[in-house]
Structure formats: C-alpha cells, structure tokens
Write the structure tokens for this entry.
Amino acid sequence: MAKKGNRIQVILECTEQKESGVPGMSRYITTKNKKNTPDRLERKKYNSCLKKVTVHREIK
C-alpha cells in the first residue's frame, strides 16, 4: 500500500499576461512539497502567447 506523501499538485499562471491584457492564458501544472515550501511557488517559464520567458506564480 502506498503511503500518503507531502507532495501536492499546484497550478502556475503567468503574471505578465494578466497585466498586458493579451487574450489567452499560460498555465503549467507541477508538484511541490508542502512541508518544505509552504509559501507560493514562483518560477520562470516560457509563455507561448507572449513568445518569451515570464514569471509564473502559484494560484489556488
């Protein structure tokens, strides 16, 4: 039987695209250990709508 871990699935959403008003949405799904990183994740990922690397933050 598998034991229940501390890893949870989170969604990362682009912050620059919200501010710019460009239609569409750039989202990534990843996992994090909620014990080691209780605060929200922030990663640099590629946004295909803006065609550049932007900051993506965790949403709830």
Observations:
- The CA atoms of residues 9 and 30 lie 6 Å apart.
- The first strand starts at residue 7 and ends at 14.
- The chain is about 10% helix and 50% strand.
